[in-house]
Amino acid sequence: MQKKTNFEKAIKTRYPEQVVIAIAKDKFGKANPVTLGWTMLASGEPPMMAICVYKGHYTVKCIRHSKCFTIVYPSSNMAKAALFFGSRSGRDSDKLAEFPCKTTPAKKIDSVLLADAAANFECRLVSETKAGDHIIFVGKIVTSHINTEPKKRLYSIAPGHKLGPA
Predict the structure, then answer these.
(1) Which residues are paired to 158 by β-bridges?
(2) Rounded to whole angstroms, how far apart are CA atoms 51 and 43?
(3) Beta carbons of 85 and 95 less than 8 angstroms apart
(4) Measured between alpha carbons, how far is 151 from 21 in angstroms, rounded to an integer?
(5) Distance, CA of 73 to chain centre
(6) Residue 134: its pLDDT value, please?
(7) What's the pTM value of the predicted model, to 2 decimals?
């Protein structure tokens, strides 16, 4: 049975919600990681993923400049990094210098991978669509990576940026 309610109340049932970190380089070559909650598979053949980024975030400029981005499935032990990357702007800081995470160069795009993540997906920008106050970027996955040591993924498990394994 269902009952009618307002959006604000109904949307709270979404937890746990997946968390990703998207990384794109700016015009100066600086890798800019940002934590996002809105992501999805967009196609199986060819494999594509989509991320949804607030239109005012510096990441929008970075993706438009570089025409590529990495989608990272952070491991559950990366909660502090995810909170940091989601609470600072790369417009006036170098997030990877301020919160060091081990990175390795991407193989097929001009980006980086986060070494401690559960998985990394290298994406070439295919399209973008305005969606209210956000931009949906769709990327074709050109290379995928998984951690050599199995890692649990990080999720948003409750309101207020509460993160943990699901």
Answers:
(1) 162
(2) 13
(3) yes
(4) 16
(5) 8
(6) 98
(7) 0.94
